[in-house]
Design goal:
Layout (H helix, E strand, L loop, with lengths): L1 H21 L9 H18 L11 E3 L13 E7 L1 H4 L10 H13 L3 E5 L10 H9 L8 E5 L2 H5 L4 H17 L3 E5 L14 H21 L4 E3 L6 H6 L1 H4 L9 H18 L16 E4 H9 L5 E4 L4 E5 L31
Parallel strand pairs: 2-3, 2-4, 4-5, 5-6
Antiparallel strand pairs: 1-3, 6-8, 7-9, 8-9
């Protein structure tokens, strides 16, 4: 059954990505009436859990200053954050708790080099705001970011943006960043089926719509040399087990712990994109890593949170699971030296 779902999702994702590339119109993922019902339920869920959060704290600045000041050669790495509320860090009170700050601190620890963060993400943004956000990062005298992280897609779904348009806008933004010389990591559309007030069968429909968009996003950006990390239901198990710790004050957006979970899933891929993370040509079969046709890899990643997809050769892509997954009581596995990782202590505020 799961294989059949992946095949169907891969087929639909290919159609969406093709429509985005060649100017096609919106494609019906499920029946129009059903989609409308799903989105109405999601909007109701948002109203049920509450709104009215203050703006996310500003986290722009220099991280890892203990590794040297900005005047030292080769200077700090530059990190750009783009996207919607999850990239902005809506729901936390302190700058150091935002995903951008966590990623900047983690990158500085791995690279042993300062990191200059600029976050242009906007709460409530859809993919049609990415062009403006990219302009903020690229226009002006400052050099382009070394790496950019984009988290986008949920608002596109809930506000009924045609998926082909959503993918087209995302790929246009990625193309501009890549032409400017930036590495790009895209956190794909999260699984809207994890929103608790949405009930079956609408939860299944919401999951299907969001996963299809996530797969199409992956297909679209891999061709441009970007990498993707599936957000999926990454926070779902943690939210279910520890709702008081993982939810923010509006009971909808993540808490500081929730954002840390997401950031640590993205960090290894971001470091790998910059050549800072140990790479291996050998796939770890024990982690279900594989080399698959792009559409199949995108579909498989959409169904499993924390999965990285990166282009390989021709129509093939690598499906990797960099995030460490251990069960309770598991002892560290023997093997080569451990992969560098960010410190677990609270990160410093930007200076």
């Amino acid at each position: 059954m799961e294989v059949a779902r992946r095949v169907s999702r891969a087929r639909t994702a290919r159609r969406i990505a093709a429509g985005a590339a060649y100017g096609g119109g919106g494609l019906g993922l499920v029946g129009a009436a059903a989609v409308g019902l799903v989105l109405a339920e999601v909007q109701f869920a948002k109203r049920t859990v509450g709104t009215g959060l203050p703006d996310p704290p500003r986290a722009d600045g220099l991280y890892g200053s203990e590794f040297g000041g900005p005047e030292l050669s080769p200077g700090p790495l530059r990190l750009g954050m783009l996207g919607e509320s999850t990239a902005a860090g809506l729901g936390v009170r302190r700058a150091r708790q935002t995903p951008g700050a966590l990623l900047a601190s983690g990158l500085a620890a791995v690279a042993e080099r300062p990191v200059e963060l600029r976050n242009v993400a906007l709460s409530g943004a859809m993919s049609d705001d990415l062009d403006r956000q990219v302009g903020l990062l690229l226009d002006g005298d400052a050099p382009p970011p070394d790496v950019c992280v984009i988290m986008i897609g949920a608002n596109d779904v809930t506000r009924r943006m045609p998926p082909t348009q959503s993918v087209r806008l995302l790929t246009s933004a990625v193309r501009r960043l890549r032409l400017a010389g930036s590495e790009v990591v895209v956190g794909t559309c999260p699984d809207l089926g994890t929103i608790e007030p949405v009930y079956q069968p609408l939860r299944w429909m919401a999951r299907r719509v969001s996963r299809q968009l996530a797969a199409a996003q992956t297909i679209g950006v891999l061709a441009l040399g970007a990498r993707t990390v599936s957000m999926g239901d990454l926070l779902g198990p943690e939210f279910a087990a520890n709702p008081r710790e993982m939810f923010g004050p509006d009971s909808y957006h993540p808490s500081a712990e929730g954002y840390a979970t997401a950031a640590m899933a993205v960090l290894p891929t971001m470091c790998a994109a910059l050549g800072l993370w140990p790479e291996s040509d050998r796939l770890d079969v024990s982690r279900d890593e594989d080399m698959l046709p792009v559409a199949k890899a995108a579909s498989a990643a959409a169904g499993e949170a924390g999965t990285e997809v990166t282009g390989a050769r021709g129509p093939w892509a690598l499906l990797k699971h960099r995030r460490r997954r251990r069960v309770a009581g598991e002892e560290p596995a023997p093997g080569p030296a451990p992969t560098p990782k960010a410190p677990t202590a609270p990160v410093a505020e930007p200076r």
